[in-house]
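User: Small ask, check this?
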Amino acid sequence: MRLKFALTIGDPKSAQIVAYQARSTGSSHLTKTDVLTALGMTQARHRAGLCLLYAKYTKDADAGFTALNELVKYANTQVRKYVGKIPGRKGAMAIRVLATKVLEEYCRTADTPGAKCRCGGSGEVCDRKATDREGRLIIVPCKKCHGSGLRPLTQTHVHHAILALVPGVSRATWYRVWSRFYEILLAWCYSQEAIAESEYQRITAMSSFYTESVAM
């Protein structure tokens, strides 16, 4: 079972993930206890990644708060490299606001209000011309969302939020400097997700192997 599907095994909160979970278990030998144990071990070793996933797929507020704090910590180690010293006394606030916006983007799913693309969140659409030409239904990735199922975002609202705290961040400065910082923070979220996923899969693979060995 994929980690994002396992998150709801104890207390489902996202209708979208519950639906995914129902068709993702496959021929697994893992019990509910095995999965919960694997989640606990993953959280102990890679808290940031697992909290990010909980915040994204179950919309858990506590996990979101922890994920934000972890993201702010990382941002503080990178800010001088990408932005330099932020003038004024609102530098720490600006970093937290930026991290909040990054987390909001990372946590968007097709069941997030207003996030769903015109394709209905599937990431796929019917190619009418190809369907008419071939005489059969032709499904292609949605050109609007590029298959993500999510309405594309601009960074304009993020720029305005930073501008309110750090005057002088022009549009050009935003895209030359701050936007790169934003993208690095977003990439960090996905890297932590991948690390947590890899650890969870390693733990469950060992557990499954042990269970099968005992059964034999």
